Amino acid sequence: MPATVDIRRAADRAVSRTPWLNSRHSFSFGDHYEPGNTHHGVLLVSNDDIVAPGGGFDTHPHRDMEIVTWVLEGSLAHRDSAGHAGVIYPGLAQRMSAGSGITHSEKNASATEPVRFVQMWVQPDMAGIEPSYQQQAVGDDELDGRLTTVASGIPGRDAAISIHNASAALHVARLQPGDAVTLPAARYLHLFVARGRVGFDQAELGEGDALRLTDADGAHVTARESTELLVWEMHAALGD
């Protein structure tokens, strides 16, 4: 089947705001529900969050979800009920498996600078697993000019961190103007322009824009300026 292309513009995302939070949602989230925009492949949430200095999410529960966090600017302090605590910064991949149930908090680790991060949720293959946590630094040299797999559950696929979904992997690239990357061939693909601007086919994608592909087969994108991309490769959809 030929690939289908769905471009979602940054300005069309739902937005949640509080005195300390600006959260922009690529999919239905919280009070923002769109029946035709609940997921793509197995990706349920992709939130682009900016948390003000001293602000953050107080302790709250999750269950049966793989939660991957990628910080773009600043630092984010994590603490959970399983005893894990740490500070996430740009280049540090983090995954929390909520499994049978876990509570955690996420706070801006700085009293003076905001933190911006993208948090992504993927449904695990099995419900009720033991909650767990993983983080691993990814070197600048691994990200510059190419897609690098930072999280994966696909068997045999090397990645900085693992997720409990055998059909999904997250890739990250930092590109300079003129750099081109080939996107993975996959049944479902979700590309998010975290910053910068890229060209795809006849389209231009800017910061906050997303590209949703179905039956993708080695499409290319080219950076127009300094760019950071987050790309989910998925070989199944919810309910498969």
Automatic annotation (TrEMBL):
Residues 155-234 form the Quercetin 2,3-dioxygenase C-terminal cupin domain. Residues 12-122 form the Pirin N-terminal domain. Transmembrane segments: none annotated. Pfam families: Pirin, Pirin_C_2. Coiled coil: none annotated. Gene3D superfamilies: Jelly Rolls. Belongs to the pirin family. This is Pirin family protein. It comes from Mycobacterium paraterrae.
